[in-house]
Amino acid sequence: MIGVLLMAYGSPSGPEDLEGFYTSVRRGRPPSPEMLRELGERYRAIGGRSPLPEITRRQAAALQARLDGDTPGRFRVYAGMRHSPPFIAETVAAMAADGITAGVGLALAPHYSRLGAGAYIAAAEAARERTLALSLRYVERWGEHPRFLDAVAGRLGDALATLPEGVRRTAPVVFTAHSLPKQALAGGDPYTEELHRTCQGIADRSGIQEWILAYQSAGRTAEPWLGPDIREVLRGLGGGAQAVVVCPVGFVSDHLEVLYDIDIECRALAASAGLRLVRVASLNDSPLLIEALADLVGEAAASFAIEQPVQ
């Protein structure tokens, strides 16, 4: 049997977990009381907690069902989180304890960067090295997978269809992804190039001639981060547009950076500029996303060349 390690960012399950979660995000540095208070307010604004852990469980269950449909008993899907339980290290240990000797690691982040997908892989590798009986192959990038592009293009079409034709014709389409420190991308990190290729692939499928790639959710540090920031873009929009369509293409699931940063903060900013903001729905456990993940797992697993009995 081949294990499948789905890796997601994670989220606190409640107010009592905020400090531990934020400390993990900050690489072991505890947040100040002010930072902790602000984060708590953001979570309260979206209902108290993020749906990300539950969405990740649904994605894992859907992927398990999809893989079982083709080869029953060949795969077993696990989910591990980078910053909250079940942590990636715990999940890798559980895979080994279950007798898994070969596995595929896949971060639920379509585009590669050392601080993004690379960090998930590093966490899994550190755990794997403590469990030498387990071999892992990693899917490093999948932002150009045709089914992923089709899925996002379909959701973008749905969002555009909510606008009257006259409004839709002038509504800018803004793709967003998580910003990263510019210094972290020095030395040929492919993050920005991969994002541009994804956006162009979606635009081609959607018949969109012009689009903007913006970044969001930058950390509050003195160093420069990737831009333009989505808030700057929204402030600068004009030319008779009555609406803006925001597509968070760097994320596949609803979580704080979508439900607060876009749905609350950016929507309020757009409204102050006289714009209606329409956000493209997240894929979450979309069947096309699950199909894409199944393809990726199958391709990576083929390298093991293990004959698996049907159970």
What is the subunit arrangement here? single chain
CATH topology of the largest domain, by name, is Rossmann fold
What's the SSE pattern? EHHHEHEHEHHEHEHEHHEH
Major sheet: size, sense and barrel closure? 4 strands, parallel
Query: For the terminal residues, how far apart are their CA atoms?
Result: 10 Å
Q: Are there runs of 5+ residues with pLDDT below 50, and where?
A: 306-311
Could you walk me through the main structural features you see in this protein, from its secondary elements to its overall organization?
The protein is built from 12 helices and 8 strands. It is globular. It has 2 domains: 160 residues, Rossmann fold (3-Layer(aba) Sandwich); 134 residues, Rossmann fold. Helix 3 packs across helix 12, helix 4 crosses helix 5 and helix 6 packs antiparallel against helix 12. The longest helix is centred in the first third of the chain and has 19 residues. Strands 2-1-3-4 form a 4-stranded parallel β-sheet, sandwiched between helices. 42% of the residues are buried. It has 311 residues and is an alpha/beta fold. The C terminus is likely disordered.
Supply database-style keywords.
311 residues; alpha/beta; Rossmann fold; 2 domains; 4-stranded parallel sheet; globular; disordered C terminus
